[in-house]
Design brief:
The protein is mainly α. The protein has 14 helices and no strands. It has a domain of 90 residues. The radius of gyration is 55 Å and the shape is flat.
Length: 450
Amino acid sequence: MRISLAEQIREIAQVAPKDFDPDELHFGQEEQDKDNDAATEHYLLELGPSALRKAQDSLSDPKYSGKRVSRTQLLADVDEQPPLSDSQVEDSESDDQSQASQEDESDTSEPSPRLVPQPDAAQTLNQTRQDDQKKGLAVSRQLSLWESLLDARIRFQKVLAASNLFPSHAEFDSLVEQTSTQDAIHALLDETLLLSEDLFQLQEYLLETNGEIAPPPRKRIKIDQGGDYAAAVSSYSGALADIESAYHPHLVQTLSKWSNKIQSVAPSVLLPSNRNAFTKSSRNEPKNAVQLISESFSDQTSWTKMVDRTRVYRGKGERIGSGFSQHGERDPEVFDDTDFYQQLLRDVIDARNGGSGSQDWIQAQKERKKRKVVDTKASKGRKIRYEVQAKLQNFMVPIPVTNGWHEEQIDELFSSLLGKGFQEDDINTPGQEEQPTRAPVDLTGFRVFG
């Protein structure tokens, strides 16, 4: 706050110290701040609300405008409400007390989060480790069971290949007239029916263990040697169809569930590949196994082509009888699933080699189809053809000398190279005859080592 010149002179002329209140040190500053706030408020009032606020202002609508009401009308509305009776007052008080008691009980019943025992970190880690071990053991058992089933199916391929060599139905009776042949066929049928009975019992046991599927009733057949084999085969075929129809819904549901799980974790497993036409699609979108099978069955062209491929004999050996079609021709009495068998073999190889077998097979197919690089300038002697050989290190082996020099020859050589003899040759020892000296030889200017 500024003061005039006269006030400044008067303050200088006063000798006594000026008495002031410490609480009023910032009094002038507060007044100045108030003046600034008033000026700012006056400026904002003159400026008015912005266009953006006016656009968003919904209270300016006429429907939100108030209505003038007198104090008499306001008090009249309050008086119109009927007073509460004594019973209502007591009920309201009791409700308030019960609500307060319920709140107190809820506060006491609910334990404090600090008192809840927290799980031990070591115990949690140990439980997780045990769960992982159980899961690993279950996966190991499933893989061993799968490999056992694959091995059984691969061994059964020999039986299927041998059945394709049987004669046709028209020539069968004429070729099995001998008694020894009929005995062998009856023995084969007996063993086959016994195996079928064991497989049916295994299927029924698995269905009963599962609990979700009730095995259909089946007529027990007594297998006698030389019995009615046609009726037995027909009965077993009908029982097999009943079991498959009862198990099919559960099979589709289980296959779809696990296929979706695999697709969510590793979608590349169900993506189309170049060597497997079964998983090809126009949009290249991953689909589960059930959708792929349904699409394959719905396409009549691909279905007919697949069935015709199974009716072509591609095995080894000549079929029994005459009048059979040659290799590559369709025969309705032949069932050849070589494609499926090769896929099973590929799965076994991948399981044994850790998945590298299929990659090696694909790489080998690419190398076969790849065009060889040929240098066109190397023909007609226009380019030197050579091959770089690796360096030969320590190629020559040491050869021992059979007829080596003796000590006197070695001494003589070194003495001649050094241009002097040994000193002991010049000293005459007693009892030793003097050696005759050699005559000097003219070397005609030739010197050895100087």
